[in-house]
Amino acid sequence: MEIEQLLMQSLQLLGLGMGAVFIILVLLIVIISIVSKIVPEEVTPPPGMIQTSVDNNHIVAISAALHQYRKNR
Amino acid sequence: MEIEQLLMQSLQLLGLGMGAVFIILVLLIVIISIVSKIVPEEVTPPPGMIQTSVDNNHIVAISAALHQYRKNR
Amino acid sequence: MEIEQLLMQSLQLLGLGMGAVFIILVLLIVIISIVSKIVPEEVTPPPGMIQTSVDNNHIVAISAALHQYRKNR
Amino acid sequence: MEQGLLQLWASTGLYNFTFGQVAMIVVGGLLIFLAIHKGFEPLLLIPIGFGGILANIPVAAIAGPDGLLGILYQAGIETGVFPLLIFMGVGAMTDFGPLLARPSLMILGAAAQFGIFFTLFGAIAMNLIPGIEFSMADAAAIAIIGGADGPTAIYVGSRLAPDLLGAIAVAAYSYMALVPIIQPPIMKLLTTEEERKTKMTQLRKVSKLERILFPLILLLVTLLLLPSATPLVGMLCFGNLLKESGVVDRLSNTAQNELINIVTIFLGLSVGSKLAADKFLSAETLGILLLGMVAFSIGTAAGLIMGKIMYRITGKSVNPLIGAAGVSAVPMAARVANKIGLQANPQNFLLMHAMGPNVAGVIGSAVAAGVLLAIVG
Amino acid sequence: MEQGLLQLWASTGLYNFTFGQVAMIVVGGLLIFLAIHKGFEPLLLIPIGFGGILANIPVAAIAGPDGLLGILYQAGIETGVFPLLIFMGVGAMTDFGPLLARPSLMILGAAAQFGIFFTLFGAIAMNLIPGIEFSMADAAAIAIIGGADGPTAIYVGSRLAPDLLGAIAVAAYSYMALVPIIQPPIMKLLTTEEERKTKMTQLRKVSKLERILFPLILLLVTLLLLPSATPLVGMLCFGNLLKESGVVDRLSNTAQNELINIVTIFLGLSVGSKLAADKFLSAETLGILLLGMVAFSIGTAAGLIMGKIMYRITGKSVNPLIGAAGVSAVPMAARVANKIGLQANPQNFLLMHAMGPNVAGVIGSAVAAGVLLAIVG
Amino acid sequence: MEQGLLQLWASTGLYNFTFGQVAMIVVGGLLIFLAIHKGFEPLLLIPIGFGGILANIPVAAIAGPDGLLGILYQAGIETGVFPLLIFMGVGAMTDFGPLLARPSLMILGAAAQFGIFFTLFGAIAMNLIPGIEFSMADAAAIAIIGGADGPTAIYVGSRLAPDLLGAIAVAAYSYMALVPIIQPPIMKLLTTEEERKTKMTQLRKVSKLERILFPLILLLVTLLLLPSATPLVGMLCFGNLLKESGVVDRLSNTAQNELINIVTIFLGLSVGSKLAADKFLSAETLGILLLGMVAFSIGTAAGLIMGKIMYRITGKSVNPLIGAAGVSAVPMAARVANKIGLQANPQNFLLMHAMGPNVAGVIGSAVAAGVLLAIVG
Ligand code: NA
Ligand code: NA
Ligand code: NA
Fold first, then answer.
1. Rounded Cα–Cα distance for residues F88 and F237 (Å)
2. Residue of E126, E104, E160, E219 whose CA lies nearest to E376
3. Are F225 and E66 within 8 A, CB to CB?
4. For chain E, first and last CA: distance in Å?
5. For B60, which residue in chain A has the nearest alpha carbon?
6. Ligand number nearest to the C-alpha of F145
7. How far does chain D reach from its first CA to its final CA, in angstroms?
8. How far apart are CA D75 and CA D158, in angstroms?
9. What is the pLDDT of residue C42?
């Protein structure tokens, strides 16, 4: 293939590629935004909860015991 | 193969299969029972021992340290 | 191959093999010795450091908890 | 530019979808929903469901011979490696203590395998229905669903009827998840209130040596009588020996954690790759789902009836409910027996007593699989 | 004895070395040095560098079809299995929360992919230089370096231009490590002090259900519009679903720890096996290194310009710096955006805001990879 | 029914067993007994013994090309992948610090390899006995047992004499387990009480940089002089670099834990699959067991004699006992040296001093393996 043809084709790919990327990500933005409105809000925040459970010695102790138990079973 | 033949064969399989399952499991029952009589009883109960060792903070601390050591080696 | 030939060849291998092993390990001794003189000494001893961190109960406790947390998550 | 656009459009899913693929993607999504929302065996059904979605994406050919799922399937399912490694991990996780403490209860795990062989007969009988055509191999692969044991079902299915594997695996894991719904009515129907109230005496302690010898004895008996069951039984015994020997904890821990997890991911995705529309969306699948339910129910009933027999023979010292745990579905079926026992008598803890028949059921269905592979395979 | 000595001497490295092999061993050592001493992506560059050394040892043929590296390469790179499993692990490690909290910022992750397609054009243009000859497939494989995502680059490279894979992987990981050096000058050049000072409002909390639905929605959109991207996007989504479902933690943990570690070791060594002297020591490699830098820079600039547009449109509520994180290079690029933001305003914490575009960049480059595979592949 | 019964009977082990298979199953059981009860290298001998049992089950063909063990063997032993990955894990577990602290002691690890080459000669000489016929390749594969290093023995054995692999691996691991029984008499015979009492000065501290450079130097020397040893030495160095670099702890941890555990399970089972009756139950196996013992003893003696030479040269600052640790068998041989030293002098702690020659022995036998592969392979 000649160089001009290749350059032309790569320009086409630039358009098609960026078009595809934008179409898909914009579509995602639209769907996610709609979904976030439909989905009911949670009362307790889940990522915070996990953070807390680390500090919570009680849970750690219990899970350590369980872990030991499972290991030694 | 005709359907009657297949049905006949599957009835045979039912007999052979359940026969094999029962023979093997009954044989196991017999052998295990004999073995349990031959094998000397343990003085210290091993599953209980493990249970205790979980509560035993000392051992847990040591094994945690060992574990760390191995990890950091 | 006749047995004498094989025996001869295995004697050769003995010489070549032990020669290769000694040459390579002696070369390593030389290079390592030179490198150990070039490399600057460290101020804080790194293997000791690790050793210490094992004894440090605080760090062990924290890392044990973290370890548990990661396992049980 | 136009040409490129057309090429891109012709490569979209929208352009290439068939109805069957869309339907199977919905099925895959449904499995994932049941796994997450209802807690149906999520360890298997999430990978299977996701694999089913990936396998039905047009153009990408992810389940094709050069796609990720196709490669995993060839490497691990076609060869039988994945289910055997899972079985090794199951062995390393299984405590045969309750079974060893009271070996006679193993008979309950034998009786419950009746579900398998009854279903084999039923599957052949279904050939009388027009549109359904099961060969003996197909029937055997379907019947093993009644073993209530995932890796056994996948191992037998992949050997005897790979085309039906997707439906068989889905049915097996779904019904295992449904044990708490399927079993209780049968249990209540077949047992009296008085029987269900039966308390059982505490299990004796089992020595370390007995635990070490058991996997070796089990392997020995199997290899003498039914070598075709030794791949499955052998790996179960190997995993259990790693655990009970007490001298190779690092191997045992890896077998029951990282290794089984890795293989579970690969196995689930591979099995999902068999949820191809043309194989799954057929009368056969309906037949499989129906027969699987029959197999579970009959197996449960057979275990219960054997439990009632033992209740009589032993002078009311065996609670018949634990017979239902003989189908395997470890440990769900044992928990169900415990729960129904507690409903009849709040001081009646059957869990450990039910674990014996429960793990015996795993052995029983591996033996049944050996028979099917020896005669039908 | 003489014969044996000669045979041994003829089998030494000293006797057999070519100049190219020596040079490549030095290159491998350099990569290891950069990885250990400078902290350049050591998880990949140590295995790649070491693999490069092993591959260039004469006589041993470790990278040959029967050598360890050759076997690993065939099993995992040629098939695409390794990068896809890495992507699964990445999915299991990725928190899409920030992206879900403010989805509009995904547009920044789209804009930054301009670096890829501009570089494609640039690579073809380089054919005008004598001695360099890139086919369309080569150009596409090189361009994907601009995606700033290692497994995507390796996946596309192995599919489109396996001969260039060594150089492409080295360039991709090197530039990802160089993000803190490459990006800041561009960021300062293209933004004003006032823009960089822009504070952003705290992100809303994202519910568990949204997190679970996201990977499924992402897969759905991709399979409808661009099935050729579904191997990559699908495994990313699968890994993320394992994590977010919350019911298969043991699989998720294995996917993001042991499994990804094992595959990383194998993938690094395999990629290193493509650092063969005759392929690497060529004008093409220089072109690849140059084009990779261009790709990163243009991608960064495109993200920043889109960031400036959003700064205007949203009434100064978006800090344009986070646009630079759209190239992916997770999480380095987000950290760089945070650092430059802090320099302008010590109370300006952009990290979480930059994570959204950052992970969107991973999706964006996987989509771009899909386009390249669909049209060029 | 009769036909089915006959078919089932004809498929039993009882019907199909040969005497050889029964004998080999007993051998497998014996290995497991020794591993559990006597603590003989259980990590390897339990999988090898169990694999040996599985391989000798009639009908099931588990060691056949389509059986689990056969598949694992083809994938990992025939290719050399398993022992090389084990070597990587060993590298990640090995502390070369003691060796770097006093490099001159490496000479002890060189001397102990005399056991290998002496045994090679002995094996060839055994051809004079009627019924035994060892080719040069066989002899080399047997001789490597004297290296006292499992993965090296398996690697060389699988390359040079796959038929003898089962016996070679069993001999290698058995003698490694027997080091505390085999070595002490030789140590006491060849050293005087005064020599054994020799205390050694504390080792200097070794810097992090020296530790990082060592695997690279080792690889460099090996690739220059003996490329055929670089697969083994290279993976050892790679694993050690992962560990010492300090920047890829997650890879190093995986290499020395989960990955090596998984591979150990697979390797053990695969090696066990070579315990086939027709290969193992032969005069050759007796020869291998005998020669392995000779190799260990001669290697120990050679190390001790070199130790005595160093004792003289260094003015009694080297305890000759640590020479025995030069055979490798890490860390057992070093512990034995320590124990015998303590018997002579309760304040004489030789463990760390013996670790240097001990790990040097690993390098030494990998180098010896390279020579054998280069000239015989
Ligand atoms: Na069962
Ligand atoms: Na990107
Ligand atoms: Na050695």
1. 7
2. E160
3. no
4. 56
5. A68
6. 3
7. 56
8. 12
9. 67
The one-character DSSP state at D41 is S
- Min CA distance, A16 vs chain D (Å)? 7
How far is Cα D322 from Cα D361, in angstroms, rounded to an integer?
Answer: 12
Task: List the single range of D373-377, F90-94, F234-238 with lowest mean pLDDT.
Answer: D373-377
Other C-beta atoms closer than 10 Å to the C-beta of F104 total 15
Q: Are E371 and D265 a contacting pair at CB < 8 A? A: no
What is d(CA C23, CA B20) in angstroms, rounded to the nearest whole number? 65
Q: If pLDDT is split at 50, 70 and 90, which confidence band does C49 have?
A: very low
Q: Residues D166, D172, D174, D177: is their CA dihedral positive or negative?
A: negative
pLDDT of D218 over the 50 cut? yes
Residue A54 pLDDT greater than 90, yes or no: no
Ligand closest to Cα of D367 equals 1
The H or E element spanning position B59 is helix B57-72
Q: Considering only alpha carbons, which residue of chain B is nearest residue F5?
A: B16
Taken in order F88, F90, F95, F98, is the CA torsion positive or negative?
Answer: negative
Of D83, C73, D263, the C-alpha closest to F258 is D263
| E73-85: average pLDDT | 95
Contacts 24+ apart (CB under 8 A), D124-129: D124/B3, D124/B6, D124/B7, D124/B9, D124/B10, D125/B7, D126/D287, D126/D291, D127/B3, D127/B6, D128/B3, D129/D283, D129/D287
Using the Cβ of D8 and the Cβ atoms of chain E, whether some distance falls under 8 Å is answered with yes
ipTM for the predicted complex comes to: 0.90
Res. F146: pLDDT tops 50: yes
First-to-last C-alpha distance (Å) of chain B: 67
User: What pLDDT sits at residue A62?
Assistant: 39
Cα torsion F215, F219, F220, F221: sign: positive
C-alpha to C-alpha distance for B62 and E258, rounded to whole angstroms: 25
Angle, CA of D164, D165 and D168, to the nearest 5° = 85
What distance in Å separates the CA atoms of residue D65 and residue D61, rounded to the nearest whole number?
8
| One-letter-per-residue 3-state SS of C18-61 | HHHHHHHHHHHHHHHHHHHHHCCCCCCCHHHHHHHHHHCHHHHH
What ranges in D191-257 are assigned the alpha helix state H? Answer: 193-197, 208-225, 230-245, 249-256
Is the bond leading into D215 cis (omega within 30 degrees of zero)?
no
Best CA proximity match to D55, nearest among D277, D246, D229: D277
Residue F145 to residue F291: CA distance in whole angstroms:
8
Dist CA D193 CA D186 (whole Å): 13
Comparing alpha-carbon positions, the chain D residue that sits nearest to B6 is D124
Contact of C16 with chain E, judged by CB distance below 8 Å, is answered with yes
